[in-house]
Design goal:
Number of strands: 0
Distance between the termini: 25 Å
Oligomer: single chain
Radius of gyration: 18 Å
Largest sheet: none
């Protein structure tokens, strides 16, 4: 979470509302990044199963 903690360095110059907003944006960006990585790993796992053709993983819609 280094990207989140890097926002903390700006806390002195920012108002509490600005700091909270920037911190929340940083956390949400990190959560999105982690969810995308997890989706990529899930597809890799599905495609690695030897008894299932590799194109099966490409047909799964993992978007909510």
């Amino acid at each position: 979470m280094s990207s989140v903690s890097s926002v903390a360095g700006y806390g002195v110059a920012l108002s509490q509302a600005e700091f909270s907003a920037r911190y929340q944006v940083a956390v949400l960006k990190k959560q999105l990044e982690v969810m995308q990585e997890m989706g990529d790993m899930a597809l890799q796992l599905i495609q690695s199963v030897p008894s299932v053709p590799s194109e099966v993983g490409n047909l799964i819609d993992i978007r909510a």
